[in-house]
Write a structure and sequence with these properties.
- The chain has 91 residues and is mainly alpha-helical.
- It has helices at 4-28, 32-56, 61-86.
- It has one domain (4-86): Helix Hairpins (Orthogonal Bundle), CATH 1.10.287.
- The protein has three helices and no strands.
- Helix 1 packs antiparallel against helix 2 (32-56) and helix 2 (32-56) packs antiparallel against helix 3 (61-86).
- The longest helix is centred in the C-terminal third of the chain and has 26 residues, at 61-86.
- The radius of gyration is 16 Å and the shape is elongated.
- The termini are far apart.
- 4% of the residues are buried.
Length: 91
C-alpha cells in the first residue's frame, strides 16, 4: 500500500486553494503591484499543479506544458512590470 496517491491528493487540494486565494487577490488587489504579484504567483501555482498532475497520472507529457507555462509566466510578468514602470514594453 502506497501513501503517494493520498499525498498527491493533499498537494492538489493545497495548490487549488492557493490558486483561489491568488485569484481573489488579483481581483481585489488594492494596487497594480499586488495584482501583478498575484498573477505571477498564479502562474507559479499553475506550473506546480500541472507538475503534480503529471506525477499523479504517471505521464511525462504534462511536464513540457508546465515548462511552457513557466516560461510564458516569466515573460508576461517581466513585460507587465516594464510596462507599469516605464509606460512601454519595447524601447
Amino acid at each position: 500500500m502506497s501513501i503517494l496517491p493520498y499525498v498527491l491528493g493533499l498537494c492538489l487540494t493545497a495548490i487549488t486553494i492557493s490558486m483561489l486565494l491568488c485569484l481573489i487577490r488579483m481581483i481585489m488587489g488594492p494596487s497594480i503591484v499586488d495584482r501583478l504579484l498575484a498573477l505571477d504567483t498564479l502562474f507559479l501555482n499553475t506550473t506546480a499543479l500541472i507538475t503534480v498532475l503529471g506525477i499523479y497520472w504517471s505521464t511525462t507529457n504534462l511536464f513540457e506544458g508546465a515548462l511552457l507555462i513557466a516560461m510564458l509566466g516569466f515573460i508576461s510578468t517581466m513585460a507587465l512590470a516594464r510596462y507599469f514602470t516605464s509606460g512601454h514594453v519595447i524601447d
